[in-house]
Structure of PTN23 phosphatase:
Amino acid sequence: TEIFSGKAVTHEDIKYEQACVLYNLGALHSMLGAMDKRVSEECAAGAFTYLRDHFPHSYSVDMSHQILSLNINLMLGQAQECLLEKSMLDNRKSFLVARISAQVVDYYKEACRALENSETASLLGKIQKDWKKLVQMKIYYFAAVAHLHMGKQAEEQQKFGERVIYFQSALDKLNEAIKLAKGQPETVQEALRFTMDVIGGKYNSAKKDNDFIYHEAVPALDTLQSVKGAPLVKALPVNPTDPAVTGPDIFAKLVPMAAHEASSLYSEEKAKLLRDVMAKIEAKNEVLDQFMDSMQLDPETVDNLDMYNHIPPVLMEKCAALSVRPDTVRNLVQSMQVLSGVFTDVEASLKEIRDLLEEDEAQERKLQELLGRVPPAPGSPPGLAEVSKECSKYLELHEKASFTNTELHRAMNLHLGNLRLLGGPLEQVRAALPTPTLSEDDKQVLQNLKRILAKVQEMRDQRMSLEQQLREMIQKDDITTSLVTTDRSEMKKLFEEQLKKYDQLKVYLEQNLAAQENVLKALTDANVKYAAVRKALAEVEHKWNTTVQTLVASYEAYEDLMKKSQEGKDFYTDLEGKAAKLLERARAACQASEAHRQQLLERELKKQPPPRPTAPKPPLQKKLRDEAGGPEAADLGSLVLSELPEELRSLPPELLPGPLAQLPPPALAALA
């Protein structure tokens, strides 16, 4: 039955029957592929390809060359789609994913050309328009996916202008796909919306970054190299005589038992050969692995010079964040200054309180010395003890907070320079990162080591390849047909002749194993010369990593520093208020204490008996009058200092009673 018209088609030709079977096989494979999980790229194109290349095209409309080519490209395109999805799930490199997606576009373009052929259009009838619209939608969609990943590739290479144009192109192509998707199922619409969210977000972010940070010129799309497709799927060959297609041979069991027994003996000979070869390979591999482990040489990281040419992404992210927050350093400096001011005010207040208390205590001791005893407690002013206690508490708090404040300022000063650097030009950031300086001899040593390491890897790969070839060759080696026609007495000779086919592979393997000793010797010599270069590179890498970590830590410490600075300001503001109040109380208490001491002194003086009036000798009286500076001294009568009570003789002038307090020191000395 012809698929498009529904007409019955009959030919008296056995090849037509074969063609129908092959067509149905291709159709069945396409249905199974649509039902299966999209993790395999095997496709139904093989049957259609064999049918197109080996059978006439005049049997029916659906077996014409154009229709079969259309089917083949549709199958290959869908198979490449499966491979694309698998590559994206496996997080393959962006450039590879872009090439795979571009090849999907190429397959569908071929299918579209077949659909646009006038002959095909007349054959397909009404469905030609629907198919063409769907294929065109897929072309635009997968072109958008390809340019999305080319944009990601440009981002990885820090080509920020190219990234913008690729993402913009992807957005344009996706919009075309959305226009052509009208009438498609909801699952298709949902997929297009999701892709629009991804590509739209990427484009907006890339454009914003380039406008505000990188300022790279955005090239025209046609000036960039086009993405070449990577055809990673192919039509599986279909051989009508292949048991995988035709099923098992119905005469397979018609083999003599002796031939089966001889085949088992031959299999044992092959197994023995494989065991011998594998024992040698494993012994050499063990030596090689132990040697490479002891060397600690990783071919991928032995030359890491490329990383010094770029600012690492984690640091680039911090620079971008600071570029939109230009007040970061100024805010931190202002916070430090405010905190220092409040800290100084608190320290000054507490020092004044402490000075007042110490002065009061000194006056108290002086009074005790004058009176010769501790003054009586009754009537002493209250409050000084409480002030002293609170002052000690505040001083203790201040001392503890002072250490924290010092550490906070040290941390701020440590991170301030790094924050200024991160907020500055990218060239300065790149210049601040350490870079290795290698001489020409050092570079030669490095290149030589890389070359030998590549030889080691090449030796490994060749060894694995030869081993795999040997295994596959042994697996496929079936001489049952020869055994059926060979006399039993000739079996041993036949085995020997058949096993000779492995001699060439064995020679290659022996050469590979023998070369290992020379390669490892050369690697040892190269590693000795590399030691100094390795040490220098390791030191620079350590400094580079430390610098990057320090800069990142400074960025991440900013918020914490601002928070702690605010907490410090709140603490010292509160303490400043308390210290100010305590200072007022201290002043009042010290004044009250001074007044109390004056009262005590006056009471003590009143308790003393009045002095006996004994007139001094005239010459002494005249001398006193002269020393006192006038006749007022005569009012002192006959009072002589030696006649004062013992406890009042050592009082300072300001504490003497009556007229004696008015005498100048020379007069008092004369009295003494």
User: Anything to note?
Assistant: The radius of gyration is 51 Å.
